[in-house]
Structures are given as structure tokens and as C-alpha cells.
Write a structure and sequence with these properties.
- The chain is an alpha/beta fold.
- It has a 6-stranded parallel sheet, sandwiched between helices.
- It contains 6 helices and 6 strands.
């Protein structure tokens, strides 16, 4: 499926956009979906996610996690605890040989947030703020990149950014697919059982594009 150019304005030298990336959702895509995770013990890494990230890295993709974490806004955990859990999670992936290059999170909620966390921000998926930040900081060519997630917000974010998307049937993915009988409100480019299957296809498509 041919994608249109992305919606947000890229204010960089196009020649600096040299990396291809796979943007990964967190809960339900690389770790078990457990609601608002507020303790280290609840971070359960999918073994297939480790294999998938290794495969993608071997194909020279940057690995970028983009995750909505409104639990901070709702008071289920502090932002400092979220950062500590992310540090430990990233270290765990790296120790398993599956390094994640960057992780971006949105702690806001437009209606239920408390204090400064209650706002209609540009970073909360399906908005593209986290992708924009990755492009600025890493230099990502979105035409060679993918988004993989288990929610319609992941697929809509990809659509708004003009990136190819894949829905995985882990986490909330299977429920969204079954409940809509496949008639998803936002159509992904691909649907896979899990991240490993997605990674295998992404690598194949990348190789055949050259």
C-alpha cells in the first residue's frame, strides 16, 4: 500500500534522515499487557519480542519504543517510578541481546489527568509527537520505517505519520480484531500473530526493496 507523505512538518535537512526504524508499542507488544504497571515484577518480557528485536537490529533497524502511560496522569504511579521501571526494562532487553535504541513515553491524559499531566498533548498516541521527537533526535527516514502495536491508536498514529503499520494479535490486538470481526476502524497494512512474525516480514520487505 502506497503511503502519502506524513502530516507533520519536518524541519530538518532531508539528507540527515538516514536511519530506518521500527516503532514499537510497549504493553501487549514487547511485554505482557497487565493494565497500569506500577511495579517492576509486573514487567514480563515476551520471549518472541527479544527474538524479533535481535532480528530487526541485524537488519540495521533502529528500535524505538513509543508508549502512552496515562497511569502517571491518573495517579497510579509517579513519573519517577515509571522512569526507573523503564531503565530496568531497557537493561533487561539489552542483557538479552535485544537493545532498544530509544524509548519515548507520554504521561498525559486529556480528561482524567491531575495537575500538569492533564492536557491534550501532541505526544499521546494517536498523535505523532513521539515519532517527531525520534526523527529529530535520531534522524529517521519514515519512508523506510514501520509501526507495530496492538491498539488502533498505534495504527492511527502510523497513518497520520505516513508510516507502514502492523497490528499484532497479542495484548489488546486479538480482542480488537475479534470484536470487530476484522472490520477495524483503522486499517493496518499488515496483521501478524506477534512481533516476531512482524519482524520476519519487515526484514524480508526491507531486503527485497534494495
Amino acid at each position: 500500500m502506497k503511503r502519502k507523505t506524513f502530516y507533520f512538518e519536518v524541519k530538518f535537512d532531508v539528507g540527515s534522515l538516514v536511519h530506518k526504524a521500527v516503532f514499537l508499542d510497549r504493553d501487549g507488544t514487547i511485554i505482557e499487557q497487565m493494565g497500569y504497571i506500577n511495579h517492576f515484577s509486573r514487567i514480563q518480557i515476551f520471549p518472541f519480542a527479544v527474538q524479533a528485536i535481535r532480528l530487526l537490529r541485524q537488519a540495521d533497524f533502529k528500535i524505538v519504543v513509543v508508549t502512552n502511560q496515562a497511569g502517571v496522569a491518573k495517579g497510579y504511579l509517579s513519573e519517577s517510578l515509571l522512569k526507573k521501571m523503564h531503565e530496568r526494562m531497557l537493561a533487561s532487553f539489552e542483557n538479552l541481546g535485544a537493545k532498544i535504541d530509544r524509548l519515548y513515553y507520554c504521561p498525559h491524559h486529556p480528561k482524567e489527568g491531575k495537575g500538569d499531566y492533564k492536557k491534550d498533548c501532541s505526544c499521546r498516541k494517536p498523535n505523532t509527537g513521539m515519532i517527531e521527537k525520534a526523527v529529530r533526535e535520531i534522524g529517521i527516514d519514515l519512508s523506510k520505517s514501520f509501526v507495530v502495536g496492538d491498539r488502533d491508536s498505534d495504527i492511527e498514529m502510523a497513518r497520520r505519520a505516513g508510516i507502514r503499520s502492523a497490528l499484532v494479535l497479542t495484548g489488546y490486538g486479538i480482542g480488537e480484531y475479534v470484536n470487530t470481526k476484522g472490520a477495524l476502524s483503522v486499517k493496518p497494512d499488515f496483521i501478524f500473530n506477534d512481533l516476531l512474525q512482524a519482524a520476519q516480514t519487515i526484514v524480508h520487505l526491507d531486503r527485497t526493496a534494495h
